[in-house]
Amino acid sequence: MTDAKEVKFIFVCPSKNEIFESSDFKIIDNRGIVTDKAGNKTLDAKVALGKRCPFCGQKHVYHASELPCPFA
After folding, report:
1. How far apart are CA 38 and CA 54, in angstroms?
2. pTM higher than 0.90 for the full model?
3. Is 62's pLDDT higher than 60?
4. Measured distance between the N- and C-terminal CA atoms of the chain, rounded to whole angstroms
5. What integer is the mean pLDDT of 27-35?
6. What whole-number distance in Å separates Cα of residue 17 and Cα of residue 20?
7. What are the residues whose beta carbons fall under 8 Å from the beta carbon of 28, sequence distance 6 or more?
8. ∠26-31-36 over CA atoms, to 5°?
9. Read out DSSP for 9-67?
10. Which has the closest alpha carbon to 54: 7, 6, 19?
């Protein structure tokens, strides 16, 4: 049995403009991959935090395109 690595997304608190990571999220309103006229593909979905934001205490919902890419 292989240990599964926990997936963490990077979020930015819209109220305090602070960056944090969390593995407690849920993908909602998933409409799949969308391709624009230039051929760029993006995920048309929202990501909801499972826990409250550590900086402002709100439960934020982000569009997938608002999240920074963790792969550089």
Report:
1. 38
2. no
3. yes
4. 30
5. 94
6. 10
7. 45, 46, 47, 48, 61
8. 120
9. EEEE-TTT--EEEES-EEEES---EEE-TT--EEE--EEEESS--TTT----EEEGGGS
10. 19
